[in-house]
Amino acid sequence: MFLTKKLSSSISKAILSTAKRTNTLRRPLSDDKPTINTSQDFIHLQEKNSQHDFPHVWLRDNCQCEKCFHVESKSRIINWKYFDVNTKPSDVQLTKDNIEIKWDDGHLSTFNLKWLHERSFNKSDRKNYTENVYKLKKKQWSKNQFDSIFKKFKYDCLINENEELKRWLESLSIYGVALVTDVPSSSDSCRRLASRVEFIKRTHYGEEFEVKAKPGTTNVAYLASNLQLHTDLPYYEYKPGTNLLHCITQSNSSGGENLLCDGLHVADQIRRNKPANYQMLTDVQVEWEDYGEEDGNKFHSMYRSPVICLDKNGDVARINYSTPQRGSHLDVSVDGVKPWYESLKIFTDLIHEESAHYKMSEGEMLCFDNRRLLHGRTEYSDTDQNVRRVIGAYVDWDFINSRLRVLNNK
Ligand code: OGA
Ligand code: ZN
Ligand code: ZN
User: Hey, what CATH topology would domain 19-133 get?
Assistant: First the structure.
């Protein structure tokens, strides 16, 4: 069956006996027709302007036949207990759309060329996939650029139109902030929007939480005083990814404005201009802590993590910052304490310089990346007739990224 399928194709083929295992690339039959070749560990696909190398071991591992891959679940089912990492092809053929391989144990694999291109190991192809499919590449912004990156989306359109939902999630991913307008004043508006993505991330403050001045609160956010720049819940290992803040009633006083700062931009400034301080902010583990009670439930949360957390590429993965929730234990040698405080001060000065102000109107919902942006709120005062009231909820990046990929696949 394998041979019949190959021979029946009317396209030109480069048939190659891999017994020779030569490194010499076959000359293309014509300028724009691809050819293939194998070497000790690779199959080389030579095209007019590019070459793609696919390791034998990777090809065998990713065989798409029904014995190796379950199509319905899009899952590898090859039994890895018996996998041979030294497997080699004994015959390789190129057809118009596929590379067909006979392995040394007789197993047959067919790889679609488009499928292979999407998985190219070339650096630029991997970068393209990483920044457009895996996760969207973030673009940092300064305070002066805030007005141009702060995009607005109508609530109804997000609920009803997938294209608009996609644009909103793209804005959130790329810039870390977006505004939703014309939001119905009911207290489940965050929930309805979150369910367009997936679902709300619950914390010890509940699924939705109500931000307003509350007597006897154990959380400083529930005071009407100035709420310093911060990220929410730095004391959670699984800190929520994004915040939705729906303004139901805004304060008529001059306060109640939100501050927003791109932590990515600030980190980048410190990395360039103050590398020693950057090192401390990325190295020293701070103990973040929340201690209190909500609806009769007592909690004491703690998580140790630097102010600027880097991933293995050296990119900022998460910012932690909240003065009220910064614990007093610091796990550094005593000589490292003052230099770390100096670094924290540099970070603090810069986030204040780089903060944009926005006062939500009633019926608006401010959405931002809680792992990247710092946010705050200016002091306000309530009256009997005017009690500021905001409903908040969190949605995780796992679900936003998942929704974006699903929407892009439609
Ligand atoms: C919070 C918060 C902002 C606001 O509750 O953590 O940031 O506008 N609130 O009240
Ligand atoms: Zn197979
Ligand atoms: Zn907050």
Answer: NE0471 N-terminal domain-like (3.30.2020)
